[in-house]
């Protein structure tokens, strides 16, 4: 009991310091949803009943959310610290503190297994609903590239919620880049492909992540596994939704999100493209005032050959995000190589026409030819490495499945 009390005191200090440094963020969509509810709406009754239920029932609640939730608060005889033991702090989330924990019960099958717990301070009904939303979405997910949900525990007496999740070894992609400074093209493509696999699964579940960035992508170079985390800004796709959201990180937002248009899977694809750009180039294509720097993209596009531009236009013009993801995931390596070879032939012809004029322009063309030839070699190596990594991954998945 004394150990639990000490843990709670440390946790309160951590949360107070976190709120002091960062404030408490309430997502814009929740505010807008509540503001759009009419006074005589049944949703108001639901909110009042939910508030009443939380105040009147037992102090500790554990939630293992069903697909269709009618009543979220299920009584539990155990508080979080009666069930779990905290080992150390892992970091700060967007609106929570993340810690490493394990089950106290030594007889449990998962007694030696570690989990990551997000600790929330609940001050309002809006915050409670936001936490429930994240748990509800994660509870439905079952994909190797998406963090797995275990349970959600409320402690109403100290206004805290504990979202227990799978503990993922490795580091965020941002931490990995900062540590290694440079990342190879083959590794970048290997990582991004797994992100697209996760997005393809989310699209099937009719969910958008809304905050794809290196800080929300876990990467374990030893196993090769890439995992999407932090679904606090995720939303269920609702057709003809008249709510406008302002979720996500500015430098990774899709253009339609800057104008407060509806969020959709294409927005996540755009953000993933920004991540790929960052991995390959080492800097973001847009920084600070995004709206004032859209011209940067136009300047970059002028340096890309016409055939590759056409591929990009075709990808952008697809009618639905499923086709778009399919194109990305099923892109043939031969098509990419063909594009590079056509560019190489064009540049060689151009050089031959100006062979008599040893100008600086000619030297630039020679340099570009060398770069494209090098790219072709890198592409071949990348394809070989990717094939091997996929084979290894399939073997690992098979071993895990057998276990």
TrEMBL record:
Superkingdom in the source lineage: Eukaryota
Keyword GTP-binding annotated: no
Protein name, as recorded: Protein kinase domain protein
InterPro entries: Kinase-like_dom_sf (IPR011009), Prot_kinase_dom (IPR000719), Protein_kinase_ATP_BS (IPR017441), Ser/Thr_kinase_AS (IPR008271)
List of residues binding ATP: 118
Any one GO MF annotation of this record: cyclin-dependent protein serine/threonine kinase activity
Organism whose genome encodes this protein: Ichthyophthirius multifiliis (White spot disease agent)
EC code: 2.7.11.22, 3.6.3.32
GO cellular component: nucleus
GO biological process, one term: mitotic DNA damage checkpoint signaling
Family listed: Belongs to the protein kinase superfamily.
Annotated SMART domains: S_TKc
Claim: ATP-binding is one of the keywords in the record: yes
PROSITE patterns listed in its UniProt record: PROTEIN_KINASE_ATP, PROTEIN_KINASE_DOM, PROTEIN_KINASE_ST
Coiled coil segments of this chain: 287-396
Boundaries of every Protein kinase domain copy: 84-340
């Amino acid at each position: 009991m004394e150990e639990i009390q000490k843990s709670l005191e440390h946790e309160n200090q951590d949360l107070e310091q976190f709120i002091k440094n960062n404030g408490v963020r309430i997502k814009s969509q929740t505010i807008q949803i509540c503001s759009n509810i009419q006074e005589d709406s049944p949703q108001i009754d639901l909110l009042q009943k939910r508030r009443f239920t939380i105040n009147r029932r037992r102090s500790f609640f554990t939630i293992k959310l069903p697909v269709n939730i009618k009543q979220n608060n299920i009584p539990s005889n155990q508080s979080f610290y009666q069930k779990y033991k905290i080992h150390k702090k892992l970091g700060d989330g967007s609106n929570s503190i993340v810690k490493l924990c394990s089950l106290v019960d030594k007889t449990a099958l998962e007694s030696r297994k570690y989990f990551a717990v997000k600790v929330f301070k609940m001050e309002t009904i809006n915050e409670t609903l936001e936490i429930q939303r994240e748990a509800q979405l994660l509870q439905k997910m079952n994909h190797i590239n998406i963090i797995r949900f275990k349970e959600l525990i409320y402690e109403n007496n100290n206004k805290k919620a504990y979202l227990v999740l799978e503990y993922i070894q490795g580091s965020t992609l941002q931490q990995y880049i900062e540590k290694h400074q440079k990342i190879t093209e083959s590794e970048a493509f290997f990582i991004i492909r797994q992100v697209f696999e996760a997005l393809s699964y989310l699209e099937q579940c009719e969910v958008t992540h809304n905050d794809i960035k290196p800080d929300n992508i876990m990467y374990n170079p030893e196993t090769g596994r890439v995992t999407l985390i932090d679904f606090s800004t995720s939303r269920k796709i609702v057709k003809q939704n008249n709510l406008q959201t302002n979720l996500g990180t500015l430098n990774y937002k899709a253009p339609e999100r800057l104008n407060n248009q509806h969020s959709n899977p294409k927005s996540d694809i755009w953000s993933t493209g920004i991540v790929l750009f960052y991995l390959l180039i080492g800097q973001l294509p847009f920084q600070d005032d995004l709206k004032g720097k859209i011209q940067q993209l136009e300047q970059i596009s002028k340096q890309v050959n016409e055939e590759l531009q056409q591929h990009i236009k075709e990808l952008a013009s697809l009618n639905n995000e499923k086709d778009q993801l399919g194109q990305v995931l099923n892109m043939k390596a031969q098509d990419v190589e063909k594009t590079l070879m056509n560019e190489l032939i064009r540049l060689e012809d151009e050089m031959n026409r100006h062979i008599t004029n040893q100008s600086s322009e000619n030297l630039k063309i020679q340099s570009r030819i060398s770069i494209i030839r090098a790219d072709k070699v890198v592409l071949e190596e990348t394809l070989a490495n990717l094939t091997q990594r996929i084979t290894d991954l399939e073997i690992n998945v098979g071993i895990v499945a057998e276990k």
